[in-house]
Amino acid sequence: MHVGAPLVGALYGARRMIQIKNLVKQFGSKTVLDDVSFDVPKGKVFFIIGVSGVGKSVLIKHLVGLLYPDRGEIWLDGEDVSKFDEKRMGPVRKKCAMVFQHSTLFDSMTCAENVALPLRKHKHLNTNAALHEARHRLEMVHIREFADRYPPELGDGVRKRVAIARALALDPKYVLFDEPTTSLDPVNARRVDVLIHELSSKLGVTSIVVSHDLVSTFSIAHQIVMLYQGKVRMLGTPDEFRTTQDAVVQQFIHGSATGPIEL
């Protein structure tokens, strides 16, 4: 589905939960996002792809108020959150967990203690109750046996799962993943893919994934948006991306050194 065609949100009607409308973001004289619009359907795995520096991570940071647009709107559950102040962003951030490229765990705390931290801070659980719930979250990502281990003892794949378990601690409706398989070996990368898909199929979580990993993209995405030169180049399903005649899209998804993509 190319720019100018009806956006995917029209297909999902009342199930549409996130809308990006005419988003513009500039840093100095550089326009990173230029009139970007798309909808994210509820309970789906939605990928944002594009060349490095195109603004993918910048885009998802707007959803949780880490950045604010120069123009445009961000609608989440019927509210334009792009104009919320810090106080009003609090409940939004509880709905939208973020898993960063690096796991950002505390090395001096066990895996269970890392996951228990938001439960103690935001749900005000006592230590024992928080640790009990943390073990349940670790079981959800299939690593309960590592609950009492420390992050430096573990491989990148397990640490990533701990970070996902921590993101799930507050029962978010949306999980934002920023390059979740970067630095992982192929086996662990595919395990993370399976886990992201499970969040959608078993828990109904809406996942928004920024990624360069095309194996992930074409394995688990329900919908994909590609950004190019600050704009939405294409929005559609994996099959639509595979079969498009757009030379820019084809060069990107095949990793060709030659083609219309500008440096």
Structure explained in plain terms:
By secondary structure, the chain is α/β, with parallel strands linked by helices. 38% of the residues lie in helices and 24% in strands. Strands 6-7-8-3-9-10 form a six-stranded mixed beta sheet, sandwiched between helices. The protein has a four-stranded antiparallel beta sheet with strand order 2-1-4-5. A hairpin with a 2-residue loop joins strand 1 and strand 2. Helix 4 runs parallel beside helix 6, helix 6 packs parallel to helix 7 and helix 7 runs parallel beside helix 8. It is globular. 40% of the residues are buried.
Concise summary:
The chain is an alpha/beta fold and 263 residues long.
Helix and strand sequence: HEEEHEEHEHHHEHEHEEHH
Question: N- to C-terminal separation?
Answer: 25 Å
- What share of residues is helical? 25-40%
Specify the biggest β-sheet. Answer: 6 strands, mixed
Poorly predicted regions are 1-15
Strand-helix topology:
Blueprint: H1 9-12, E1 16-27, E2 30-41, E3 45-49, H2 56-63, E4 71-76, E5 79-80, H3 86-95, E6 96-99, H4 111-122, H5 127-140, H6 156-167, E7 174-178, H7 186-203, E8 206-210, H8 214-220, E9 223-228, E10 231-236, H9 238-243, H10 247-254
Parallel strand pairs: 3-8, 3-9, 6-7, 7-8
Antiparallel strand pairs: 1-2, 1-4, 4-5, 9-10
